[in-house]
Amino acid sequence: MTGPIVAGIMPGQPLAVVRHCAALASGLNVGIVFVYVDASRYLVKEKGDTSALIDPDGIDEPGDGDRLIGLLRQRIDVELAGTAIDWALVSEAGEPARSLNRLADRVQASVILVGTRERGVEALLEELVMGSVAVHLAHHQARPVMIVPLDPQPEHERL
């Protein structure tokens, strides 16, 4: 395994995903490409990575996506401070499992790492509507998929 780990992350997700990913990357001596998939956007043109909002009226303010990526970058930077792990953070658009798969193909990833959803009614409803990213990847992926179980964790332990 020589390609990086592609790790799906999202705001509010427990830091366990970043920690497990860092441990795996260190053990395999590979880098990490963290990816936030914005499901409120869809891919217009795949080659140019052009995307558009599904509901342009739903955005709070222009630049919110950039601020979100900046906050995620800060949290990851703090968590991985002091390590020699080479990492990057990218933003993709569209259905999460397909976006992770596309990125993994593009960077020739060794493995895809995602976290499970936390327990609760809201998470159950979201999974019923959107499906499970982890299950979709596990069934439609040629490369290994690592799934990090996420138990409820304190707020300060989140991205």
Automatic annotation (TrEMBL):
Top-level taxonomy: Bacteria, Bacillati, Actinomycetota, Actinomycetes, Micrococcales
Native source organism of the sequence: Paeniglutamicibacter cryotolerans
Record-annotated membrane-spanning stretches: 17-37
Keyword Cell cycle on entry: no
Alphabetized InterPro entries for the sequence: Rossmann-like_a/b/a_fold, UspA
Domain UspA positions: 4-149
Keywords: Membrane, Transmembrane, Transmembrane helix
Protein name in the entry: Nucleotide-binding universal stress UspA family protein
Recorded superkingdom: Bacteria
